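hey team, just a heads up i'm posting the complex here instead of the shared drive bc the drive is being weird again. everything in one block, sequence lines first with there labels, then the predicted structure for the whole assembly after. its two chains so it's a bit long, scroll down
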Amino acid sequence: MTVLRRPLSQAARKEERTAWVFLLPWFVGMAGVTLGPMIASLYFSMTDYNLLSSPKWVGFENYSKMLDDPRLRQSLSVTFIYVVLSVPLLLAVALGLAMVLNRGIKGLAFYRSVYYLPSLLGASVAVGILWRQVFGTDGLVNKFLGLFGIHGPGWISNPDTALYSLVVLHVWTFGSSMVIFLAGLRQIPEQYYEAAALDGAGRRHQFRHVTVPLLTPIIFFNLVLQIISSFQSFTQAFVVSGGTGGPSDSTLFYSLYLYDEGFGRLHMGYASAMAWLLVVIVGVLTAINFYFSKRWVFYGDGK
Amino acid sequence: MTLLKAEDTPSPVPAPSPAAQRRKRAARVRAFLKHAVLIAFGLVMIYPLLWMIASSIKPDALIFREPSLLPTDTDFGHYADGWNALSHPFGVYLLNSAIVVLGALLGNLVSCSMAAYAFARLKFRGRAFFFGMMMVTLMVPIYVLIIPQYVMFSKIEWVNTFLPLIVPKFLATDAFFIFLMVQFFRGLPSELDEAAKIDGAGYWRIYFRILLPISLPALATTAIFTFIWTWNDFLSQLIYLTKPELQTAPVALRNYVDATSGASWGSLFAMSVVTLIPVFIVFLVGQRYLVKGIATTGMK
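-- predicted structure starts here --
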């Protein structure tokens, strides 16, 4: 016997039709601006394509070319160093300040605003320009170091230090993560702390055994999001290095190199292959994150 | 704020013993130190921004000589100089930015709220599947999309128009905001819809007259974040707008760096300040929503 679908009632059919109408823009966008381009990107990644003549099929040549491309390797290592340094630092600062601000402090709204503002401005070209000057030879940082008799280098113009000024810029935008941590801290029931205090746990113990375990889902959430977004940083590296990733490729972020290959040299095929390598890297890192999360992320309901 | 912890609220003590008084004094000293550290840290955080503002009104010769915020001499001419330093007055770039931002804002509000209404409140086959699909798109790096999108938009000759920056927003491509609104709609009692249905309201009426008005916080959050992100957006504006008269403020600002290569830092800072002002105003006006929005969805 064939399984008959129970026919939808007239009301349910109307609801379904309405839903399609409401979703129509999203469907068009999904097909035309997201999924379609993704498929096209996969196709381009296996072609030689300069936008002017039609794409020429080359199979996996773009991918194998990546294996011995020193600038690609450089851009990967720059990006990895950036993510590995700035993400933990950013999260630590965000969590630390959230902890301080969480404990019945006066003027919370004021502090929260001051610390949060940079994360809204941080992605702007204006702040990138500002950073060039702050970390320049005569910049604020060196003026400050000069007070202690330290003669600082031109941070931006020195290949050994340029990347770190971008790390500092990224950590400077910790405010949005801090706000998420603050919201998480607020959800920890007060009774847990009271119970811990009754058991004689001091503040340090309470932090280790109550706050941190209950906050792990949010730490994890912030970690995953930060890694994904940091890998794609573009504007600040572009502005600070004047679009070149210099000095000597020391700030050649992966996205910057991809932009240069694609829109600078019109190697659209190679740039598309690079984009897919990025998908794989971000996907693998996220998967690793989820895998290890079982060991340290604590969900109260025993999941 | 209801953040006071029990241990921090002073309990009423009938007659303060010397020990209690000492504890109280110690607590006050601790609180004072804490605020001192927090203020010092906050000052370090915003010092570069204040320095930029101060530098925009200092004579060029003084900008790098004195790191202090109080200028010993002022030069407000930087704003006029910077405004006219490029091939078009800076107002043109600001206006272009405003067009892109307002288009994106309207598009996101309309299309994302519509999709969110369907996902959160209507039953249809494949709802879970499509919802999952939308969530996956949150993780797709933009670099996978931007090259084929550029190819597509250049084929239909939309390069050097605002359309590539605005039209996709009317197609609910910012999944973040759909997600945000779905979460918000789900938090509203379903009795609202049912009562309206009994009164004879159709789905459109429910969406327009009931859900949207009470979803003001979610809509405001979407509007504010769309504003700030689009205003700051650089990459897509850089690739799609190459004609000087169409360029947006961030792109113009970047070109300014190249064009003058440091001839006048004062003017450069002045125009930087000008491009930050709208973000700052939106920040001040929308702070409450910003904080709530970010706390509930964890967006950057």
